[in-house]
Amino acid sequence: MQKIVVEGGQPLNGEVQISGAKNAVLPILCATLLADAPVTIRNVPRLHDVLTTAKLLGELGAGVVSEGSQITVDPTTVNSHVAPYELVKTMRASVLVLGPLLAKYGEAEVSLPGGCAIGSRPVDQHIKGLQALGAEIVVENGYIKAQRRGRLKGARFVFDMVTVTGTENVLMAAVLAEGTSVLENAAMEPEVVDLADCLNALGARIEHAGSGRIVVHGVEKLHGGSHDVLPDRIETGTFLVAAAMSGGRVTVTGSRADTLDSVLDKLRDAGAQIDVDGDRITLDMGGRRARAVDLVTAPYPAFPTDMQAQFMALNCTAEGAGVINETIFENRFMHVNELLRLGADIRVDGHTAVVRGVSKLSGAPVMATDLRASACLILAGLVAQGETTIDRIYHLDRGYENIEKKLSGLGAKIRRVD
Ligand SMILES: CC(=O)N[C@H]1[C@@H](OP(=O)(O)OP(=O)(O)OC[C@H]2O[C@@H](n3ccc(=O)[nH]c3=O)[C@H](O)[C@@H]2O)O[C@H](CO)[C@@H](O)[C@@H]1O
Ligand SMILES: C=C(OP(=O)(O)O)C(=O)O
What we know:
By secondary structure, this protein is an alpha+beta fold. It starts with a strand and ends with a strand. The chain has helices spanning 22-31, 48-59, 85-88, 98-105, 124-132, 164-175, 190-201, 233-246, 261-269, 308-316, 335-341, 371-383, 394-399, 403-409, and strands spanning 3-7, 13-17, 39-42, 63-67, 70-74, 82-83, 107-111, 115-116, 119-120, 136-140, 143-147, 156-158, 180-184, 205-207, 213-217, 225-228, 249-253, 273-277, 280-284, 295-296, 321-325, 345-349, 352-356, 365-367, 387-391, 413-417. The chain has 14 helices and 26 strands. Residues 22-23, 92-93, 116, 306, 371-372, 399 line the site of phosphoenolpyruvate (PEP).
């Protein structure tokens, strides 16, 4: 099994290009199922999750052609409406074919995602939202079995809590419903806006995506078209944290600072100087040691749960102590025990972790437990004395494109070994 080996101690300097967002491209690929003609998606990151989604679309009968950072999906040949457990269990985002298959083809059978290392991944809100649009849904034998009689009907639906994939699933179904739907307490994440932009480019009539109240005027069909995926704000944040921890100066290019307000604020609190110039964000730490920061994860525009592990790494070697409160997932502190192996000082009490900065971490073999935990361990390895070997990096390949090449380009000593 492949591992990442990091030798700590190099300040990072230079420029790095940001890829398209994993959490935007996956729903967008699923949304192509709604169209009546081929759809081309550009700025697609080369990630394992993208390959899994392409495989799923292929199993449903769609034509999928991938060329570099572009994928064209031809949904006109879809002949199956089943998303099997084998694919859904490796990637929760597979549940996002539920809304499109139901709305377009009248039926869908999608495996329940179950849980994962970071916590349970319930889909009750997806089901309730689709039922509000008139779907008949039963859950049996581990599958969500949905069908509709006639067209789905536009409705008002209030989500019990902010759910990103829940909003996306119901939004995609509402696009082809008869009449207007109003989704209240909707997720405001930039990835939801990107999905809505893509759907509107294909002929949907979605208003106010990015607010907590999305209005969808149903249309009879979507045409083909193309869309450019928005830059990955979590990849951007991960490189900026790496730069801050190393005391260096890094410019990320092809990024969107307006999707990163809470993350950039925390980096400023940590002592970084941040300059934004169009799609370029420059972080300059000027050789200084970061200050520890407090943070609470919450739905957008608050601090993202997907950046929690990386900031925990930052706090590990920062000046002072930082309190981290994780409110989205019940088990998203799996990286703590691995950071302790590197010499970190962290106490966890329920959803709260208190991290006291230490003057140095020391390299050790560690194990990645999930996607962002993997990134966190690389960041810690980059500032630890000696060598850190990170095992189980298949998690990393789900969500970061060429992270070791990109970090090497900034001066890090990092390599992948078999
Ligand atoms: C709001 C939020 O920050 N969502 C994060 C979540 O999105 P993802 O879409 O995976 O998860 P949701 O946004 O749906 O879940 C948010 C919360 O709602 C609960 N829930 C969700 C759906 C449902 O039907 N019932 C239910 O109870 C979940 O248990 C969780 O506590 O994980 C992604 C991957 O780490 C992140 O990119 C998203 O930022
Ligand atoms: C945990 C993540 O993704 P997923 O929901 O696909 O597991 C993530 O993007 O950090």
